[in-house]
């Protein structure tokens, strides 16, 4: 790190110019060669995937393109609005000539008219999921809606191609960056010192978004991969740069020459940044082993964004510090405080906790456990238009369909049956009768045989909505009980459709969550032991990180699944937690927690090696890191929390979970639980069996100084 810091200083203008070229080139390449996003939640080998295969083998359309709807409703009945609906269909066909448009008053669309004839829907299908074509279709449907909606006729847009109207106001990322600017100004008191972390975060975000677009040509990238990568890159970029700039200013205040201060910052905080960044990258890449397309795409996007951001923090930042020099404190926004009082409040607080460690540890643990309790009710699934705020036309279309056709009409189950040798239509009829008699089934459509007569298709309409737990139970009941009892060896039956596919994905991730968590915990434990040469302090770090993660999960369940505060935050309806979020949160939260852990414990270990007094080391370590950790955490909370202001439930949920985890970790965990537990453990914090000491590699984060040397 020292050599790298010196090279970046000597070639500082070339380094800055090189990074500008990299960002511009990546952005240009992504605009020219970037791939299309794909929200493909298909789970290879699942029953829902098998249903698609059976239907395709039988010659049925898989409806793989874009499917949208114009939902119409009239309290007096739609028969009086038949002419208006026909005009609406004609306008859509004129605007989108390659679309397949079905009128509910046509024979083939008879099922699109509710029994009371007050609600119906016009289906609009495109043979492609091309993002540009889908966006144009959405614009056309919104225009048609505006033209035909009246006091007598309600028209709403629903379906995959039009689930949200254009957002108003600034993007959530910008709100987070503006909040970070304010916090950095208060933390540093200098415009120059504030600008450097912001630049690193922006470079990381821009590069990360470009890498996601380029990566979409090789792997399936979901539509939310780019904003997630930008969110993480902005947060960690500002966070990492904040740690390095703080060390640089401390070295300058201690009388070091600017060139020496850059080296000191890089060999201390820079090592912490490198360690924390590599940890996040490894944890993210570990998600690739789950072998899920949607998770693989997001994981690669996050790993790429964090990697570029980390490289910017250890190369671009030293170069900019060398250019800035002693001007780092120029354009001050308030009078600088004297360094003699720096950390006094945190030092006094640490002593208060250390005088009564048992009550502090028990109280903090009790609060964290209480916040974690909602996790016991965690239910995984996927959001749809029914979880959006009622201000959204997609949500209103969803509600109209549910009121007119029943809640299950928004998520019908698709049953595919392949007839074995000797089977006939009577076997399919027996299956249909058994399905219709199943509790929780509102209706079934008549079976439709393929032209060859060896594949049958029918739909099952549940009595409950797609997000209802009873619907997931129905899927399992049909698969486990109804189908084996009614089809025997005559039929190969697979239950599919979007709702069943969501159940398959949720079950798959839920089964593998414990294993993934164990792998992340184990890797974190080994890394911490290797760095700090203390078994107890590493175990403590992993356990408290687990508690903060549990508290974040509990808060997510309470808000997004139970619905606490959804009206206040305008988050729409409560629903299961997005199935991909827990694994992502585990990987990212542990990486971010490791950042603060390393920064704090490095200072504690440094003081312990200098003095040999554990109590003093804990107090001094906390005093010298509390302010910067608090500022870094506040920035993270603002950046991640700003995504709650967006319109995507996935990003709202993910951002809220990360923001809550960072908040808990930087307050209750770092300021109460960690000093209390380290005080209780005393010198046992740093105990390490000799055989383990010999077996583990020696990883140096911040060089220890003082008479005790490296223990």
Q: How does the SSE layout of this entry go?
A:
Layout: H1 2-10, H2 12-33, H3 47-57, E1 66-73, H4 82-95, E2 100-102, E3 119-126, H5 131-148, E4 154-159, H6 172-188, H7 191-215, H8 225-253, H9 258-286, H10 293-324, H11 344-355, H12 357-372, E5 380-381, H13 393-405, E6 413-419, H14 425-436, E7 441-444, E8 448-449, E9 455-462, H15 469-487, E10 491-496, H16 498-532, H17 535-561, H18 566-569, E11 577-578, H19 581-611, H20 614-641, H21 649-681, H22 690-695
Parallel strand pairs: 5-11
Antiparallel strand pairs: 1-3, 1-4, 2-3, 6-9, 6-10, 7-9, 8-9
Helix pairs in contact: 1-9, 1-10, 2-7, 2-10, 4-5, 6-7, 6-8, 6-20, 7-8, 7-10, 8-9, 8-10, 8-20, 9-10, 9-19, 11-20, 11-21, 12-17, 12-21, 14-15, 16-17, 16-19, 17-19, 17-21, 19-20, 19-21, 20-21
Query: Distance between the terminal alpha carbons, to the nearest Å?
Result: 22 Å
Helical content band: 55-70%
Shape: elongated
- The computed structural class is alpha+beta
Put simply, the count of helices is: 22
> Tally of extended strands?
11
Based on CA atoms alone, the radius of gyration comes out at: 29 Å
Low-confidence stretches: 161-169, 336-341, 703-711
Roughly what fraction of the amino acids lie in strands?
Answer: 5-15%
Mean pLDDT: 85
Main pleated-sheet profile: 5 strands, antiparallel
